[in-house]
UniProtKB/TrEMBL annotation:
The chain crosses the membrane at residues 12-34, 46-75, 124-148, 155-174, 208-229, 236-257, 303-326. It is found in: Cell membrane. It comes from Kribbella solani. It is a multi-pass membrane protein. The keyword Oxidoreductase does not apply. The lineage of its organism: Bacteria, Bacillati, Actinomycetota, Actinomycetes, Propionibacteriales. This is Uncharacterized membrane protein YraQ (UPF0718 family). Pfam families: ArsP_1. One of its GO terms (cellular component) is plasma membrane. Signal peptide: none annotated. Keywords: Cell membrane, Membrane, Transmembrane, Transmembrane helix. Belongs to the UPF0718 family.
């Protein structure tokens, strides 16, 4: 079993590393390859946008991975159980607010939430933390400020919307999911024999290779969207607020970009309104294809097929509301 897991992890690392190398190679040397498809100006625009988004986002991705790995290796899950109020309704906002000071990526938030449930934390609070930690931690907010210079309202809007969504989903669980049979509580896992430094190293390597692959795919998709899709079509979609919010929300689900880097991709989608780009940044860290897969494996398919659509719908509605209010 251990060998199979190691082979799977190794295969995933190779796949993402290969993706990174191929996309960077296309950005640097793709002009000759795509001359027949795009104009020379189009190729230059694609390469410039792709490299710009990737290079600008990479420092924040690395910082986020380092902090997330440190949290995984050096902070015991029991710390969160002791810090939360015993009353479930009060534990939800506290768990949501803890995401502001506790860094973590989407991939790390799922096992951390599972560990919280195993240590007696109410599922509603664990779900609130699951949604808030990757969306409003300091690295994410700092990267958003850099991606949208001179627009602090975008940072505030992202924090307020993501915090609100996490609390609403947590309280919604208390109202509808308490004692429900469609949440498969994860099995309690004993600590492994690896030391903390080895845990830190392996977590950092895994998260960087995993998130880095999604980053470059997202940067490539954003660059391609700006070059290939006709400007008239983009203008038509961007001209409709509801349609543009829905389209960018779906795009965030499919691209599955790391939350430390998605603001730079959102900033490059200049055809769309700030509200639509807010939806992209709110949806991505809390519901995307990799998170749905992780949640299915951790909490069971019955949980995932209900939780993902509900999260997506509430995130879009909250983005529209906060966008109308602040942006």
């Amino acid at each position: 079993m251990t060998t199979a897991k190691q082979e799977t992890s190794s295969g995933s690392s190779i796949a993402f590393t290969t993706t990174l190398v191929l996309l960077v190679g296309l950005a640097l040397f793709g002009r000759r390859l795509f001359t027949g498809w795009f104009s020379a100006d189009g190729v230059r625009t694609w390469a410039t946008m792709f490299v710009g988004v990737t290079v600008q986002a990479m420092p924040f991705l690395v910082l986020g991975v380092l902090l997330s790995a440190a949290l995984t290796a050096f902070v015991p899950a029991s710390f969160f159980a002791k810090a939360l109020p015993k009353h479930p309704a009060l534990a939800v906002p506290v768990a949501s607010a803890s995401g502001v000071v506790l860094p973590g990526c989407e991939c790390a938030s799922v096992p951390v939430s599972a560990a919280l449930m195993n240590r007696g934390v109410t599922p509603a609070a664990a779900i609130a933390f699951l949604l808030s930690a990757p969306a409003i931690n300091p690295v994410v907010l700092a990267s958003t400020a850099v991606a949208f210079p001179g627009q602090p309202k975008v940072v505030v809007a992202r924090a307020v919307t993501s915090l609100g969504v996490s609390m609403v989903l947590g309280w919604l669980w208390l109202l509808t999911g308490k004692g429900s049979s469609w949440l498969k509580l994860p099995k309690n896992r004993h600590a492994h024999d690896a030391g903390r430094l080895e845990t830190f190293r392996s977590a950092m390597l895994h998260d960087f290779l995993h998130a880095g692959g999604f980053l470059v795919v997202g940067a490539a998709a954003a660059a391609t969207l700006n070059v290939v899709v006709p400007r008239t079509w983009l203008d038509h979609v961007a001209g409709s607020l509801l349609l543009s919010v829905l389209i960018l929300g779906l795009l965030a689900v499919l691209l599955a970009i790391c939350s430390e880097a998605d603001a730079f991709v959102a900033a490059s989608l200049t055809q769309f309104s700030l509200t639509a780009r807010l939806a992209f940044m709110v949806v991505g860290p809390i519901v995307d294809v990799k998170l749905i897969a992780l949640q299915t494996g951790t909490f069971g398919p019955k949980f995932a097929i209900r939780f993902a659509p509900a999260t997506f719908a509430i995130a879009l509605l909250a983005s529209l509301l906060v966008g109308w209010w602040l942006l």
